[in-house]
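About this split. The held-out portion is used to measure sequence recovery: a designer receives only the structure tokens and must propose an amino acid at every position. Recovery is the fraction of positions where the proposal matches the reference. Here is one held-out target exactly as it appears in the evaluation file.
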């Protein structure tokens, strides 16, 4: 048995709806099932989703206060009034600022931008920045991707004589800021058809309204912020992302070309992963370690030479950020393990002086990945007595709602159900920890702390084809609420499995179903599974299907993400040396090492007082293993078949590791046949008494036997009263009665031992598996009844 790393949640689609979509849209049933599972279960919705190029945008004036904002901004442009864009320092904020700056510049506005410094000013609008704007003659202040929680700052803007226009997408709090206009798709009284725009999506709608036409050339900028901010990639977000990616593959915007070059992105093959894992992290890095202005300057640059300088500067900052994150993550993991063990903390809240506040969110994500607990990571400023941090959550725990219950401790706070940012007093951290853990205790159970993998469907190897995988790409771009499809392939075998990579830490497999259907698979970082999957095991795998193209040949493949085996497994360690080493490689959790004889200690002294050791000296000792369901290691040969049957009866081991160590002289290399006995008897009858002590070796050599054979036959004859033995002299008994060899206790015991040795030590892997499987499955009930009678 091999338990998966996560809880597999397999979605099942309505078969009738799947059949309708497959027939009407001429797509494979698997792709039709993916659409149904995403709620796209009508012909119209599915067609609209698949053929995103035909989708249009909603009228921007459907957003509340859009008319007020457009009127005031155009008035300011006409009157030559100074306008300032107040942005945020992440990728969404940077792209939002770029979109608004570009649109207003085209309209001839006197406009500049301001992005607060994460370290000196913190998140969101702040009084210092607003007073500076007023001093510099700003008459219209427009926020992008921020501001919905800044109630006091909105009042200050009015007091300073500035008209305040707020555009944001973060969760609105109980009190809204007082502003000339609030453009936000999630306001309670909003009738806008799509609620989940990113900050840059809201800025794009304002740009659309101001320009009077769709600014299609800004879609490439909007796509970056939309994908980077992890908003649902459905509705307008999907249109922005899809059309923006299409433009990015062709763009000549110097800043984007330079950014793709330093990020090693192949422009013609760019997709959502190129943005999410290569471009956006570099844009984010600037604001994480300092001022975010260079990121805006890069995106707005008109010179390729200038853009390359900025891109290289940003790339260097990103490398510094990566090194910093690695060091902080190592310290944070140690802090959790030493002081806040996950076993007793439903929410992890840690902080330290000297941690960079710009990367605490990334570190929080790494801790969630490691410990799977909602996590808040804080950076302490002892001089100011403040802690600034970021939070990341798990499925089933709404961070925004939970933190809202502690709002009085969080003067600066905002975010989403899965992520949040905050500032609080250092002295309040312990109270926040206590209250958040209490909330988690009420809302989460033990199962919630095991990660979930949502699977979009199950398929067979026969159904996997180039066509199916190509059709799946119609669902791209992938992201939140439209994840890259994860597929279950159930109950197949591995025709090959091996470790690959320089460090042998990756997995290479070939799946087969017994009907000549095969599929190659690669699992990055999953090389350890090679040691946890037994030969002939029936496995289930989950992962993402893709097309492997090599030397102009295309083949389907699966990127394996997890593996499970639902039945017990046999691992054949017979004859394997270095027992101490291979025992250490067997998972120690829920493991029992079974020995039958103390002689094993002479061969393996390290087993003395081993914490996992179970010594079976009689059949009753097997009760120590009742209801055992873990890893059973059988170190040496049992004295009889019954002993071993009792060990495995009424058990449900997930794995059996069969070693069956034995010293060769404990058993005969061959079992003497009746002809052996006949010849020896005839020899004694013809030659008379034999001094076995003196001539036993010569006799054995003459016959090509072992000395053990001579001694064993002699002992059997003695037990049957065929001979007498005195001082090593063996002679036939006069008028001995005819008896069968089976009447000798030594013969019977040795015959059973020999047969058991053949079954357990010298059998093939399949024969040994069948032997165990017989007693584990077929005879468990009978053995239970026998045990009751025996006891």
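Reference sequence for scoring:
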């Amino acid at each position: 048995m091999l338990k998966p790393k996560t809880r597999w949640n397999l979605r099942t689609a309505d078969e009738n709806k799947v059949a309708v979509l497959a027939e009407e849209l001429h797509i494979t049933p698997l792709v039709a099932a993916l659409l149904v599972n995403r709620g796209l279960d009508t012909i119209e919705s599915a067609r609209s989703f698949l053929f995103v190029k035909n989708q249009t945008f909603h009228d921007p004036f459907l957003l509340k206060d859009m008319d007020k904002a457009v009127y005031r901004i155009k008035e300011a442009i006409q009157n030559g009034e100074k306008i300032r864009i107040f942005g945020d320092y992440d990728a969404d904020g940077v792209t939002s600022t770029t979109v608004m700056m570009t649109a207003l510049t085209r309209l001839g506005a006197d406009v500049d931008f301001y992005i607060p410094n994460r370290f000196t000013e913190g998140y969101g609008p702040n009084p210092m920045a607003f007073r500076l704007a007023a001093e510099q003659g700003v008459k219209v202040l427009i926020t992008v991707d921020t501001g919905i929680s800044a109630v006091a700052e909105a009042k200050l803007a009015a007091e300073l004589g500035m008209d305040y226009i707020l555009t944001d997408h973060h969760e609105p709090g109980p009190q809204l800021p007082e502003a000339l206009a609030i453009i936000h798709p999630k306001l309670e009284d909003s009738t806008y058809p799509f609620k989940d725009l990113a900050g840059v999506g809201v800025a794009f709608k304002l740009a659309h309204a101001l320009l009077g036409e769709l600014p299609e050339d800004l879609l490439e900028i909007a796509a970056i912020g939309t994908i980077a901010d992890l908003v649902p990639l459905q509705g307008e977000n999907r249109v922005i992302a899809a059309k923006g990616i299409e433009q990015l593959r062709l763009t000549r915007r110097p800043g984007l070309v330079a950014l793709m070059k330093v990020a090693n992105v192949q422009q013609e093959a760019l997709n959502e992963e190129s943005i999410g894992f290569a471009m956006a992290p570099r844009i984010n890095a600037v604001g994480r370690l300092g001022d975010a202005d260079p990121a805006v300057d890069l995106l707005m640059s008109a010179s390729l030479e200038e853009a390359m300088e900025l891109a290289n500067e940003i790339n260097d900052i990103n490398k510094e950020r990566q090194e910093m994150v690695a060091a902080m993550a190592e310290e944070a993991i140690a802090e959790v393990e030493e002081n806040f063990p996950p076993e007793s903390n439903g929410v992890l809240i840690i902080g330290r002086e000297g941690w960079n506040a710009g990367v605490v969110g990334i570190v929080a994500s790494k801790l969630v990945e490691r410990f799977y607990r909602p996590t808040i990571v804080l950076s302490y400023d002892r001089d100011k007595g403040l802690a600034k941090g970021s939070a990341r959550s798990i499925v089933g725990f709404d961070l925004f709602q939970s933190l809202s219950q502690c709002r009085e401790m969080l003067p600066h706070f905002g975010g989403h159900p899965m992520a949040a940012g905050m500032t609080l007093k250092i002295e309040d951290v312990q109270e926040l920890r206590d209250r958040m853990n209490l909330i988690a205790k009420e809302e989460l159970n033990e199962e919630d702390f095991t990660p979930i993998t949502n699977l979009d469907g199950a398929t067979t190897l026969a159904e996997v084809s180039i066509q199916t995988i190509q059709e799946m790409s119609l669902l791209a771009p992938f992201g939140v609420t439209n994840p890259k499809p994860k597929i279950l392939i159930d109950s197949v075998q591995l025709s090959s499995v091996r470790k690959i990579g320089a460090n042998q830490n990756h997995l290479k497999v070939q799946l087969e179903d017994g009907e000549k259907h095969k599929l190659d698979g690669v699992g990055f970082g999953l090389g350890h599974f090679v040691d946890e999957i037994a030969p002939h095991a029936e496995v289930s795998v989950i992962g993402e299907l893709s097309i492997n193209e090599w030397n102009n040949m295309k083949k389907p493949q699966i990127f394996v993400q997890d593996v499970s085996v639902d039945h017990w497994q046999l691992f054949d360690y017979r004859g394997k040396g270095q027992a101490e080493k291979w025992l250490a490689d067997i998972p120690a959790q829920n493991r029992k090492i079974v020995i039958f004889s103390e002689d094993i200690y002479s061969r393996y002294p390290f087993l003395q007082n081993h914490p996992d050791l179970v010594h079976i000296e009689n059949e009753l000792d097997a009760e120590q293993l009742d209801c055992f369901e873990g890893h059973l290691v059988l170190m040496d040969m049992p004295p009889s078949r019954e002993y071993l049957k009792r060990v495995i009866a009424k058990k449900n081991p997930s794995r059996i590791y069969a070693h069956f160590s034995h010293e060769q002289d404990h058993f005969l290399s061959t079992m003497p046949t009746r002809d052996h006995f006949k010849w020896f008897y005839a020899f004694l009858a013809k030659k008379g008494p034999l001094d076995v002590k003196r001539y036993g070796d010569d006799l054995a050599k003459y016959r090509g036997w072992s000395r053990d054979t001579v001694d064993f036959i002699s002992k059997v004859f003695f037990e049957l009263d065929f001979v007498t033995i005195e001082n090593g002299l063996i002679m036939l008994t006069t008028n001995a009665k005819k008896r069968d060899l089976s009447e000798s206790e030594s013969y019977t015991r040795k015959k059973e031992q020999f047969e058991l040795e053949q079954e357990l030590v010298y059998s093939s892997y399949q024969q040994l598996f069948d032997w165990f499987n017989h007693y584990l499955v077929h005879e468990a009930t009978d053995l239970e009844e026998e045990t009751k009678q025996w006891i």
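Annotator remark: The first strand starts at residue 7 and ends at 10.
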